[in-house]
Input
Amino acid sequence: GGDVDSLRKSISEFLETNVPKVPGEEDVDTQPTLGFQRVIQRAVLHVQGAGKKEVTGANVLVAIFAEKESHAVYFLHKQNITRFDVVNFISHGISKVPGENQNELPAPEESDEAGTQTERSPLDVFTVNLNEKALEGKIDPLIGREYELERTVQILCRRRKNNPLFVGEAGVGKTALAEGLAMRIVEGEVPEVLADAVIYSLDMGALLAGTKYRGDFEKRLKAVLHHLKKQHHA
Output
């Protein structure tokens, strides 16, 4: 909902006034600021936690909002842009500006590539089968998380309230726990009730990629859930 031209002008004026200029003919060893390093690290950890392989500008923009005392966040807030606004627009295409929601734009022409992609199962397109990764030797052994993993197995074996939830900052090992569980399943080290279980990792990057119109994300997620329900013992 911000004014891009106004935002660009404010940032340009700030850089022109406050950032020292480096002569073009001299070789200067410039160093990134701590704030810049934190933003990049935060974006990378978020991407890794989501199971993606590439950091995009959107990831960096969301990570910038954690630097609350920075001029970048100051200029964004000056345009009434919040972290929630950015995440909401990226995920659902919902804009605060009337008439600019993505669902109001004309539908794109379907391409042959898109048509081919729709023939694939949503589970193949938007998820990663962790059991298959474990069988292929692409998952490292889980070390030091025996209690958490055992507790996860116990919760999954309940008749009710059997949904374990891993909570923590990016990079603490939530995905590693899911991979460790998949490793146990393929190695036959789980109770019989979980012996045939399959663990899928939702690829948020693939879910969000190309979601230009409001409702695209929801449609993809519903398609994934629909195919999961078809799985044996889902």
